[in-house]
């Protein structure tokens, strides 16, 4: 499961409602929640945040928490 999937599970989000509100298909939401190789677009992240009434920055921080800058030599 992806970080987005974990976030949505913790919030007990109904994916059908999110799909209806955002226009993102249930299949796409499932891919975003379950497949690590699926790339999440910023517009999708923003729409999901609006649909579940969460600050987009909160989801962004959670989804990207493992990203780090490269260390310089």
From TrEMBL:
Gene3D superfamilies referenced in this protein's UniProt entry, alphabetically: lambda repressor-like DNA-binding domains
Ranges where the HTH cro/C1-type domain occurs: 16-59
InterPro entries per record: Cro/C1-type_HTH, Lambda_DNA-bd_dom_sf
SUPFAM superfamilies attached to this UniProt entry: lambda repressor-like DNA-binding domains (SSF47413)
Pfam family, one: HTH_26
PROSITE patterns: HTH_CROC1
A GO term for molecular function: DNA binding
Lineage: superkingdom: Bacteria
Name of this chain's protein: XRE family transcriptional regulator
Organism of origin: Flavivirga rizhaonensis
Lineage: Bacteria, Pseudomonadati, Bacteroidota, Flavobacteriia, Flavobacteriales
């Amino acid at each position: 499961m992806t970080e987005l999937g974990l976030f949505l599970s913790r919030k007990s989000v109904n994916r059908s409602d999110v799909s209806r509100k955002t226009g993102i298909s249930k299949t796409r939401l499932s891919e975003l929640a379950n497949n690590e190789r699926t790339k999440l677009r910023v517009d999708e992240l923003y729409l999901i945040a609006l649909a579940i009434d969460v600050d987009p920055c909160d989801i962004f921080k959670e989804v990207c928490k493992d990203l780090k800058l490269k260390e310089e030599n």
